[in-house]
Design goal:
Layout: E1 3-8, E2 38-42, E3 59-65, E4 68-78, E5 86-88, H1 90-96, E6 105-113, E7 121-123
Parallel strand pairs: 2-4
Antiparallel strand pairs: 1-6, 2-5, 3-4, 3-6, 4-7
């Protein structure tokens, strides 16, 4: 199943002062780690992406946009801004937008993965 998303916004960080969502702990029970290759998925899509909850394994997804692909761990959920299904953490967002100046990345595709295909991170183009 491939879910199209109109745009990704700047990276999410629930530990950033003034941030409106979540807290220092992700929905999986892990602490938020801006250095991991991770993301938060829209709460309504939780079951399609591994059912992320404390004590339950995290899910994985392939994210494709602006001629780049990456595997990310889905270890958090939340009521994201309207029109978005995924928020990438800082490290992952820098892969798609190294300067973090774009703000939005349009025409992103998000595909739930049943199993991981290697470690989370960029997928080299062949």
């Amino acid at each position: 199943m491939v879910l199209p998303e109109p745009a990704l916004n700047r990276p999410y960080n629930p530990c950033r002062p003034g941030h409106q969502e979540g807290g220092a702990e992700t929905a999986s029970g892990e602490p938020y780690n801006p250095s991991a290759r991770a993301a938060a998925i829209q709460t309504d899509l939780r079951e399609r992406f591994g059912g992320t909850r404390p004590g339950k394994r995290v899910g994985y997804a392939m994210v494709e946009g602006i001629n780049r692909k990456a595997i990310v761990r889905i270890n958090d959920v939340g009521p994201l801004k309207p029109g978005r299904i995924i928020d990438l953490n800082e490290r992952t967002m820098r892969y798609f937008d190294p300067t973090l100046r774009l703000g939005l990345i349009y025409n992103v595709m998000v595909t739930p993965l049943q199993v991981t295909i290697g470690r989370p991170g960029p997928i080299a183009e062949r």
